[in-house]
TrEMBL record:
Domain of life: Eukaryota
Record protein name field: Uncharacterized protein
Amino acid sequence: MATKNKLFLGLFVHSKALNELEYLHDTAVGVDKEGKITFVERDCAEKKARETVLPQLGWKDAEVEVVKAKEGQFFFPGFIDTHIHAPQYPNAGIFGNSTLLNWLDTYTFPLEVSLSDLAKARRVYTRVIHKTLSHGTTCAAYFATIDVPATNLLADLCHARGQRALIGRVCMDEPSTSPANYRDESAEASVAATRESIAHIRALDPTHTLIRPIITPRFAPTSTFPLLVQLGALAAETTLPIQTHLSENRAEIALVKTLFPPTVTGAADDSYAGVYDAAGLLTGRTVLAHAVHLTTGEAALVARRGAKVSHCPGSNTALGSGAARVRRLLDRGIVCGLGTDVSGGFSPSVLEAARAAVMVSRHVVFMGEEVAGEDREREKLSVEEVLFLATRGGAEVVGLEERVGKFAVGMEWDAQLVGLGVVGEDGEVVGDEDGGDVDVFGWETWPDRVAKWVYNGDDRNTKMVWVKGRLVHARK
Ligand code: GUN
Ligand code: FE
């Protein structure tokens, strides 16, 4: 909880629409002790803010903490990582030439099993929370492991450290695909363990100010159909959000077809999305990671149910899963956000995911049959669009669009102060600010500076990070 009212001054940049950033120059933003934005005043220098705005609010000048963006700095909404596996962080960058299914068996399951050691879990979770915050991730939808105490520990650590998070205890009970030492004994046992973790997280944060449980069937192949059905019922009963993986890799899709024929699911066909739908898992509160190889029919079903997609371009590239056609999803009205998918993805940075989304969209231009008259160039995602996905899109994916993602009165202050290197007359960066690889000469427009940040930025540019008004990271 923030302890003082705060006044932020300078340039604020946020998404106004999918393809439009808004630049609020010389603006003052007031944030109250609860971390809520109470005013946004344009053309409001410090003097005016102190002399006219603060008295109107009844805020005493001496009790207000003032944070001013310097030259080359701007405030930007915190990033939302809509898909990340906290226990897999030690494996970031370790995947060799594997693809999804053998990657899970070789690298992922053994590491996840080992985190039932709570000392090890604490070490890993402490680090991944620190690391993601330092990259500007103010909110993350985490997959934990099947272990309840370790999952609850992740929630405790996020809560204490002040990162907004959805925390999912992973469910998997299918004996032919889940390792003997890493699976639930039955669908019922899986649901009972999930309820236990939900109860812990709800007790920790009853009004879900920061932390919320999320129902997490790992994916169809490691689930029995009864488990999927029972988790669908649990989601309906609790109105909690759901997260899982969908249509990431071709071998995975083939496996789903053998494990879930219509005779098992009662669905009209053997589509992957149809399996989740038959179990009641495709809802407006469902986050589907990947959705790389969706058929037209599946995309229509996902759109009809209002389920959301977490686009994970870094992971899809690393594991050779394929390239999601984000434009087609957006054109259908499917809400999309970005996910790092650590450690399918090797980088914990949402900025890196945004960059990867731009790059992958440029490969998509050359994919598939060329249809006469089709404008292939439309597949390309712009800097503005990927930043929308990283903030407002992500907020909608995790059901927080009323609370975070942009700067407006009534929204919560989840934000980052971004600093770029300002190059002086002597060719050296002005002052002691490290701009990392982003050097700004002064003649660039602000849209060009933001583009330079997207393509060359990293955590050296993330100077300060706040969640709900609380300072949770300051770069040394
Ligand atoms: N599908 C099932 N489990 C996983 C996982 O841990 N990571 C990714 N990327 N895909 C999955
Ligand atoms: Fe994943």
